[in-house]
Amino acid sequence: MKPRDLADYLFLALAWGFSFLFVRIVSHAFGWVGAVSLRALVAMAAVWLMAKATRRPLNFNAGWWPFAVVGATAVAGQLLGISFAIPRIGTAMAAIIVATIPLFAMLIGQVWGLEKISLRGLLGLLLGFGGIVLLVGFPVVTINEEFLLGSASCLLGCISAAYGSNYASHRLKTTGSWEVTIGSFLFGGLLSLPLLYFVPVPSIPAPIDYLTLVFLGCVMSGMTYVRFYRLIISIGATRAISVEFIVTIVAALVGVAFLGEELSLIQCLGAVIILLGCALVLGLLPEWLAARNKKSPA
Question: Does residue 170 or residue 137 have the better pLDDT?
């Protein structure tokens, strides 16, 4: 794994982990639909303006349909599902379900023949998912209609994200990450915008809410997805999307610092297991062992 890929991977983990906190704030101010649609359009505009400001050439010769598919799945489908779910099942439960995205991506990639997952990679994915369960834990809640609806919504969002990532890896692999980000967020924002008629903004947002929305759209959406789609092209959809394991660790730490949640010793053990799972998926652990064996005397 190249140093730039590793840097992108870590940036995504931190940005998306902290985004859980910002999503809660923006969803409260703009509603769960407005938070997604406006966030997507802000992200698209920010990346497009940055490309123009730096005179970066953009090539959309792939046509509008692939961008529409990725926008409908990896942007609108994923973000709407998670945004709808968080108020109903909580951040912890949502984080558990989000951790299934790499598993769905692996299965879709296998069915499509896009990637071949080794036994080591499969073990890493399973370890990562097991670590998520230990890290976050299942809250003791009443299983009611709201809870089941929120869980189903989050699960559909995760499947949508896995589908969109594999589709982008297959249909847009020769398209630059800037173009994929601009095109997908444009269609994601436009496709979700009509839903504001059914789920309008609840009240007039405060100035700080607009600033939070802009920050969420520009930094935690626009810039992160540029790096994410670049990472997909470089290391493949399954390995790139395994970053969701680390995202959950960061989200849990954010919960401790800002939401008053607590981490047990078992949850800390889960964090270590997640890191081990990511190392296996990314091929970092075998490379480290091989390098150590070469240094050892014969």
Answer: 170
CA dist., res. 9 & res. 250, Å (int): 13
The DSSP element (H or E) to which 184 belongs, if any, is helix 177-192
Please report where in the chains the tokens 């903004």 appear, as a residue: 201
Residue 60: Cβ within 10 Å count: 14
Distance, CA of 291 to CA of 193 (rounded, Å): 51
pTM of the model: 0.81
Question: What would the two tokens of residue 131 be?
Answer: 């670590």
Cα–Cα distance measured from residue 46 to residue 224, given in angstroms and rounded to the nearest whole number: 12
Dihedral sign computed on CA atoms, order 219, 222, 227, 228:
positive
For position 182, what pLDDT does the model report? 96
pLDDT in tens, 104-129: 887 788 788 766 777 777 887 788 78
Quick check: 17 and 248 in contact, CB under 8 A? yes
